[in-house]
Amino acid sequence: MSKQASILSFFNRR
Amino acid sequence: MFEARLVQGNLLKKVLESLKDLLTEASWDCADTGIQLQAMDNSHVSLVSVQLRADGFDKFRCDRQLSMGMNLTSMSKILRCAANDDIITIKAQDQADNVTFVFESPNQEKVADYEMKLMNLDQEHLGIPETDYAAVIKLPAAEFQRIIKDLSQFGESVVISCTKEGVKFSAAGDIGVGNIKLAQTASVDKEEEAVTIEMQEPVTLTFACRYLNMFTKATCLAPQVTLSMSPEVPLVVEYKIGDMGHVRYYLAPKIED
Question: Is B33 helix (H, G, I), strand (E, B) or coil?
């Protein structure tokens, strides 16, 4: 099974 | 004072159509260089980034930077009141709590204006790292829309796999398996019908159909779409907005549990 990653794991909050 | 006039008003109508299913509210950041929007969907799975350069407008004035928080459902309702050939002007005073949209018919005989309340949105901006993508695929936007629509019938996810032979889209589910392979086009009459692949290394990633389907709402904007992929980073789906900017969608991949 694959799990949906969050975009926040790749892009940092400024 | 902020004022932006766009003779090709239908571009703005199309931008809103491309955003409204994914975002309910967002801020338009205006500066003398143009208008930008960056927002995540509610689930924080995707990020949308829109750029409209000042020089793409027929008139553009922005005396001081301002951020206009808008309900995009309301903005979309208003823009649907503009005809496809209307000239659209967006106006706001400095520190105003409302924005005005003016729609002029090409012969200037009909002029409509709609005022909308602005919202105070405390939106965070994300830093998008510069990335050299392992594979950059350009294909007709309508073809991409069709592929995603067809494969969405099979399952919740689409696997996009790019090799030097071409790009393969696959989905699997209860009813079976679907695979669509596109080879790089050898020669085409029209540039917009071409499939081109620039690949540094093969890459395979899995993405949720639901989001890809929402991104293809931007198909009306441009004849071609660009997909940029690298292992274990978000996919970028880009549509040009005439020659004045772009809508870019970033989608986090599905990863092995």
Answer: coil
Per-residue pLDDT reduced to its tens digit, B159-174: 999 998 899 999 999 9
Distance from CA of B238 to the nearest CA of A (A): 17
Among the partner residues B250, B255, B256, nearest to A7 by beta-carbon distance: B250
Which amino acid, one-letter code, is at B138?
K
Kindly determine whether residue A4 and residue B252, on different chains, have CB atoms separated by under 8 Å. yes
Question: Residues 6 or more apart from B183 whose CB is under 8 A from it?
Answer: B165, B166, B195
Phi and psi angles of residue B150, each rounded to the nearest 5 degrees, phi first: -65, -45
Write the pLDDT tens digit of every residue in A2-12: 899 999 999 98
Contact B189, B256 (CB under 8 A): no
Closest CB to B47 among A3, A5, A11: A11
Chain A closest-CA separation from residue B103 CA (Å):
36
Token pair in block for residue B50: 């829109």
- The ipTM estimated for the assembled molecules is 0.94
